[in-house]
Design a protein that fits this description.
- The protein contains five helices and no strands.
- With about 140 residues, the protein is mainly alpha-helical.
- The chain folds into two domains: about 60 residues, Orthogonal Bundle (Histone, subunit A), CATH 1.10.20; about 50 residues.
- Helix 2 packs across helix 3 and helix 4 packs antiparallel against helix 5.
Length: about 140
């Protein structure tokens, strides 16, 4: 695999940025953001082309590679990373469901009803908290 060359540089006309209303502090931020995005897009597209190429063929970065790389970058901004507490709460929900089912299977035992109620209450609380944290609106 050939290492990718430096990504092409994106140049902006100061005049166009001025006409669009960019301030002196906005221009460098815009240029830096576009440059960073361009570098990310370039590197991801090249890596995707490397993954999809035949072993003895040269790399060919196609429109599909660029499009897929852009979608990957966009998706990475769309969702915040899942916290470990969120995952733990989800696992505990499943455990409560398992305990609930086990209690139902042993309903003839005296301990089954309190276990079922406990699992149901804790499971519903965990589910509600997870739902509220996922969808704050």
């Amino acid at each position: 695999m050939d290492e990718p060359k430096e990504p092409p540089q994106v140049n902006f006309s100061e005049e166009n940025l001025d006409r669009a209303g960019f301030t002196d502090s906005g221009k460098p931020g815009f240029k830096r953001t576009v440059s960073d995005y361009s570098t990310m897009l370039f590197n991801k597209a090249v890596r995707l082309a490397d993954v999809h190429k035949a072993e003895d063929c040269p790399r060919e970065v196609t429109h599909e590679h660029v499009k897929e790389a852009a979608v990957m970058i966009a998706k990475s901004y769309a969702k915040p990373p899942v916290s470990k507490w969120f995952t733990l709460m989800h696992v505990l929900e499943y455990i409560c469901t398992l305990i609930f089912g086990f209690g139902l299977a042993k309903l003839d035992q005296s301990w089954a009803l309190p276990v079922i109620l406990f699992a149901a209450v804790i499971g519903v609380i965990l589910f509600t908290v997870r739902l509220i944290k996922t969808n704050p609106d």
